[in-house]
Design brief:
The complex is a heterodimer.
Chain A: H1 17-30, H2 42-46, E1 54-58, E2 64-66, E3 74-78, H3 79-104, H4 119-128, E4 134-136, H5 142-147, H6 152-159, H7 193-206, E5 213-218, H8 225-237, E6 241-247, E7 250-251, E8 254-255, H9 256-259, E9 274-278, H10 282-299, E10 302-307, H11 326-336, H12 338-348, H13 354-377
Parallel strand pairs in A: 4-5, 5-6, 6-10, 9-10
Antiparallel strand pairs in A: 1-3, 2-9, 7-8
Chain B: H1 18-21, H2 24-28, H3 39-58, H4 74-78, H5 92-101, H6 105-115, E1 123-127, H7 128-142, E2 146-150, H8 166-170, E3 175-177, H9 182-195, E4 198-202, H10 213-221, H11 223-226, E5 236-241, H12 256-259, E6 266-269, H13 273-285, E7 290-295, E8 302-306, E9 318-321, E10 326-330, H14 334-348, E11 352-356, E12 359-361, H15 365-375, E13 378-385, H16 390-402, E14 411-415, H17 424-430, H18 434-444
Parallel strand pairs in B: 2-3, 2-4, 4-5, 5-7, 6-7, 10-11, 10-13, 13-14
Antiparallel strand pairs in B: 1-8, 6-12, 9-11
Classes of the chains: A alpha/beta, B alpha/beta.
Chain lengths: 412, 446
Amino acid sequence: YLPHWNWNCLTTDSQSEKSAVWIMALSRLSSRSNIISRPLSAAFRRSISTDTTPITIETSLPFTAHLCDPPSRSVESSTQELLSFFRTMALMRRMEIAADSLYKAKLIRGFCHLYDGQEAVAIGMEAAITKKDAIITAYRDHCIFLGRGGSLYEVFAELMGRQDGCSRGKGGSMHFYKKDSSFYGGHGIVGAQVPLGCGIAFAQKYSKEEAVTFAMYGDGAANQGQLFEALNISALWDLPSILVCENNHYGMGTAEWRAAKSPSYYKRGDYVPGLKVDGMDAFAVKQACKFAKEHALKNGPIILEMDTYRYHGHSMSDPGSTYRTRDEISGVRQERDPIERIKKLVLSHDLATEKELKDMEKEIRKEVDDAIAKAKDCPMPEPSELFTNVYVKGFGTESFGADRKEVKAALP
Amino acid sequence: MLAEDASFTVTHVHPMRTLDGITLPHVLRFLRFVTLPGKKKMAARIHGGAGAGAATALSTFNPKKLVAPSRTNLPAARSSKRCIVAAAGSDASKSLRVGHSQKLIANAAVATKAETSATTGTGHELLLFEALQEGLEEEMDRDPRVCVMGEDVGHYGGSYKVTKGLADKFGDLRVLDTPICENAFTGMGIGAAMTGLRPVIEGMNMGFLLLAFNQISNNCGMLHYTSGGQFTIPVVIRGPGGVGRQLGAEHSQRLESYFQSIPGIQMVACSTPYNAKGLMKAAIRSENPVILFEHVLLYNLKEKIPDEEYICNLEEAEMVRPGEHITILTYSRMRYHVMQAAKTLVNKGYDPEVIDIRSLKPFDLYTIGNSVKKTHRVLIVEECMRTGGIGASLTAAINENFHDYLDAPVMCLSSQDVPTPYAGTLEEWTVVQPAQIVTAVEQLCQ
């Protein structure tokens, strides 16, 4: 069966997504002269890191706003940013595909929720904020961890349960954390991370940090009561919390129209403003997050709904095709894929040739394979790690056994 | 023992019906056959005794049987045809005290506590809730990261006045009135703790924290472990629990039994103003999440505490009364029932060692072990339900670790596995009364 939403309801001005892409491409061609400056020599085009030529990019769709004025569709960017978007998103995509093969090879066990298709949300958000702003999300956290500065080696080591993983092998796929970049995880019970996120925002306000917190959740978790409880408190206390609903239209196997009476997640805040964003367009995400950060620092909470899509099933144990058709998946991949969109932009701005992008992808593939090989060599955690980090050693916190030695788990 | 009087045997009252069928007049009807002196005293004794009797008939405890009580509940009782009452002994005046003093437990406990006061030199006298407030205020003065969040803790001053005056002193950002959403504000406290703040989260009644169980279990307890040590959660979750004065089933819950399995948290129960202040301060300073269990009926206990700053160790048990014959382990309000029973026992010639275990997770097996090695007999008196309570875990721990030192099986007196009834008499029967404690000690020390 097909869900009753289709392409048209994704656009509010009733253009189909396909035509929007063409219109954008045509507008680029016709307004080449509007580009502020074009790279002059071939040398500038090749390197990612040096060229900061500013570019203005139109988002594919306008923003839909609830109780606020939507930001403009023109996004300031640069060559460097465009190429780095491409590179990082390709890295994320490659990482997730590699995780897929590792799971099938039984090197990753348990639950593994993959983010491919949704990379634009992670990338766009990172581009708009600093490492002082906090991000907290549920279990689909591999790419966000990477975006926050985590390394591929830490990711694969943690996924395979090795001791060099970001959580020392004790967390697993659903528990990635990076304290120094204010990435608060990585949570298995959906919905529970939103009150945590509002608590982090409270702490930011308490310590007068001028930073915000992005509490991410999915369309499935959007129906959790604790979200509204946390939103109520955030609005009451004017906390700088931004609730980001990554709406990939399926809560595991349940389509959004079967789970939610109101599919407009950005309006669910009622008295809290909201913004609906095309989550497959990294620049739209970047613009929205920038807007949301300014709003949250001044006026309190705001909800962002990212309209996105995941190609894989809910997790590795879900084929992903029992509740949606393969045509739908391949349709989205053809028309809205975030990496393809960036690729087209790069090519249309003459920032790199096809071959260079292909080489970049080859490099990325090699990087990922090297990280996997290194992670495979990493040993499993020591048995004594079973009992470390249950409690923090410090002020009067030893757990005594019968003879005052370190307690073992068998003793209460 | 009164039950040995043949005229007093109530054979045709089926023990299983005792809880729903028994009423005071019901029992009193049989008293006209009793030849003991003074109906009035007898009434008082029955009042106290009926409570003991009904409860003991339903529990496995049956002093008439010489076999050790099994842990199964009703089947053992069913075979007992006697409704055992007034186990307090043959002295009518003493049992009168038992009967009436149940209503005055708190005051009697104050009298007991003054004898074994932990203070030296000058100090100041205050009530338990004031001691908690003092500890909280001192910690908030000392560390600007400490904040309080809960329902009505700010402007209202706290439903049990523990946070009275703090909002005026520290402002709205540090003493936060939350809406009624335990799940969310507990989660927010934990999220704030991940960044370094030290929130003290109050559940207006411990039972309400069941709504926040997910946050307490998965996030509070486990985040330090699942993040590989990156995040610490230095929260204190506190609130009153336990059976109060006819508060009803949902407001009389004992959550220590539900929380005890959660890995990563520590649980402590305070019982005197001295240890309330000390444990509050220690809990706030601890880097681990600590759940501090207070008791609704103990807030007005008065005691003299030291003027100088002090902290109690979170994992240590408190020796209330050293002794030789039997170790009685208890915590929170039951400490006072135990001390009440101890007075009776001393008069009867027993020398119980009473230990307030204070630390519910982890148990202070060192202090407990030393005591067991000395006395060889253990009685656990707790307010949790029989099934899966703190006493159940403690019994298992003692049996596993100190089996060779025990001369008698570990006996555990707990509350009945029933929702706490509203009616005062029924409510009394759900919790352990001093008379039952005395009988249990007598049985163990045979």
